[in-house]
Amino acid sequence: MNGPSAPDVLVEAAPPEQQDAVAAVAAHARVRTPWTEFWRKFRKQHVALVALAFVLLLVVIAVLAPWIAPYDAENFFDYERLNQGPSWQHWMGVDPLGRDIFSRILVGARISLAAGFFSVAIGGIVGAVLGLLAGYYGGWWDRIVMRISDVLLAFPGILLALGVVAILGSSMVNVVVAVSVFSVPAFARLVRGNTLVLKQMTYVEAVRSVGASDWTILMRHILPGSVSAIVVYFTMRLGTSIITAASLSFLGMGAQPPMPEWGAMLNEARADMVNAPHVALFPSLAIFFTVLAFNLLGDGMRDALDPKIDRM
Amino acid sequence: MANYFLKRLLGLLPTLLAVAVLVFLFVHMLPGDPARLAAGPDAGPETIELVRKDLGLDKPLVAQFYDFFGRMLHGDFGHSMRTRRPVSTEIAERFMPTLWLTLASMAWSVVFGMTIGIASAVFRNRWPDRLGMILAVSGISFPAFALGMLLMQIFSVELGWLPTVGADTWRHYILPSITLGAAVAAVMARFTRASFVEVMQEDFVRTARAKGLSEWVVIAKHCLRNALIPVVTMMGLQFGFLLGGSIVVETVFNWPGLGRLLVDAVGMRDYPVIQTLVLLFSLEFILINLVVDVLYGFINPTIRYR
User: Fold this and answer.
1) What is the 3-state secondary structure of chain B?
2) Which of A102, B34, B63, B163 has a CA positioned 20 to 30 A from the CA of residue B107?
């Protein structure tokens, strides 16, 4: 997004002796969109920038995991080196079954990131739609949605997720469904609040007066006003969702062995903690740094967007 | 005040009824035929029909709910399918260890979290603030089960200072309560800081300073009380989180509490236990919210109770 903008092109096109003058005018003319404003503030936060870089690295790892992992994460067994610590052959050591922990961590990144992303995405979409409708139409629909949201919000996520897994059975897909359920109320509430404000705006009234349908008003004129808040909340929510998904796998209700999900890896490592603590150490660190990166990125985006959004 | 409390308590009844209906429907949505489960794997079709009649599962849904609710009011929550003991006994045995663990976690995390939060706000943007906030963001990013395993490895296995599993002496409480409270302490620290920073910019704080009060009095008396209001709400919400977190932590430390009972029950599809536990947890959340509302009144007398 820092490519040459129109003013920059103008400056370069100007004759050398006039470049300074043109640059001064161009700087003035540079359009301050909300997006450039956001980037200007975000850029100053070095911690958040590092977090962003780490998140991008994780995404690359998640996409390329099967190709960059040095060994097969599930079907390679090194029986010579069971429980061995980190070495040149196995950067993070070997687990009790002889599998390469580094490869499993890399492939696990794909599982954890996908679980986090899809659960928050599903929760975000359902919540946003509910919130839009509740805020726009009000009335009994609004009251019902908000009452249910309040109850769900008060409930700890892991308990709710456990209930969903109890109904659907334990698998990674069901974990995603379970975790998305408890993202719904938070998004619904966020979007509803924004919708309540935006629907009073003059421009929405203007759109309505020229005969736009409710659908057009909601999708083209109200939803875009909430997008930035949704994106920030999405990022902040990812960390929590990754932890919850990993917790469920740790409890044996999500990913099942031999799947290299980080929480499931920790659960497997529990049996041999005394002999091979490194088997538990690396998945722990993987979860910690991933969630930390998303939390720091979310904090940074929130501060860049609006320092007044409450600091949770 | 007492009047308000009573009114709120009565207002709980419809909520509880709604929760009971939800739990009842929830159990009916669970896969598997409860009559078949109760009858055991070797039972023939006639036995299953007998068991179904015996459990009242052949009646219409509304009548079943009526039975379920009536029995519940008499304190009869059925028998655990796993141990064949009354659910109420199972839960009664496990209740206290979880309660004590939750309270111990809450106590240290509130003290610790608020201290960090206040120190961060007072020394805003200087090193105590930075250190405190690094700790806080790490606290919410470290999953409880990993922290528990790490602490157990260091303090119980390597150093041998503390016991690993069980809930017999106070020394058993140290590691689980640190594990369970870490995330709450982190959230409290971040929240207290935010609330404090806001209050410290208020006019009345400037007035207090202007009339020559020492900084200590301004912080401890004028700021703290006002900053506490949102913090108390947060505390109530975190209690719910602790009850949820206990599920994971109890599994790590093999704690004889309600959280592990629930995990075991879900794993074994022990429906009577699941349904009673979910009801109990819901009741706890509702009561906690009530207590938080009442606490408001003590902290902020301007809130009127009608």
Assistant:
1) CHHHHHHHHHHHHHHHHHHHHHHHHHHHHCCCCHHHHHHCCCCCHHHHHHHHHHCCCCCCHHHHHHHHHHHHHCCCCCECCCCCCEHHHHHHHHHHHHHHHHHHHHHHHHHHHHHHHHHHHHCCCCHHHHHHHHHHHHHHHCCHHHHHHHHHHHHHHHCCCCCCCCCCCCHHHHHHHHHHHHHHHHHHHHHHHHHHHHHHCCHHHHHHHHCCCCHHHHHHHHHHHHHHHHHHHHHHHHHHHHHHHHHHHHHHCCCCCHHHHHHHHHHHCCHHHHHHHHHHHHHHHHHHHHHHHHHHHHHCCCCCCC
2) B163
Q: Does residue B133 belong to the interface with chain A, where contact is any CB pair within 8 Å?
A: no
C-beta separation of A283 from A231 below 8 A? no
Question: Which of the residue ranges A44-48, A218-222, B80-84 would you say has the lowest mean pLDDT?
Answer: B80-84
A185-189: average pLDDT: 89
Whether omega for the bond prior to residue B301 falls within 30 degrees of 0, making it cis, is no
**C-beta separation of B262 from B274 below 8 A:** yes
Mean pLDDT computed over B175-186: 87
Give residues 10 to 29 of B whose Cβ lies within 8 Å of A: 26, 29
CB contact under 8 A, A288 and B143: yes
ipTM exceeding the 0.90 mark: no
Q: What's the pTM? A: 0.80
The 10s digit of each residue's pLDDT in A30-76 is 677 777 877 888 888 888 889 899 999 999 988 887 888 777 777 77
Residue B42 to chain A, least CA–CA distance (Å): 23
Backbone phi, psi, residue A94, to 5°: -125, 145
Whether A246 contacts chain B with CB within 8 A: yes
Residue of B nearest to A270 (CA): B149
Pairwise CB contact (< 8 Å): B190 & A155: no
Which among A50, A147, A162, A273 is the top mutation candidate for probing chain B, defined by the most B β-carbons within 10 Å of its own β-carbon? A162
What pLDDT shows up at residue B202? Answer: 82
Q: Which residue, B254, B272, B264, B242, is CA-closest to A253? A: B264
End-to-end CA distance of chain A: 29
Tell me the pLDDT band of A290, cut-offs 50, 70 and 90: very high
Surface of A (20-59) touching B: CB under 8 A: none
Determine the residue among B179, B248, B270, B276 to mutate to test chain A binding: the one whose Cβ has the most chain A Cβ atoms within 10 Å. B248
Tell which B residues from 60 to 79 touch A, by Cβ distance under 8 Å. Answer: none
Do B152 and A263 count as a contact with CB atoms less than 8 A apart? no
Residues of B in contact with A312 (CB under 8 A): 187, 190-191
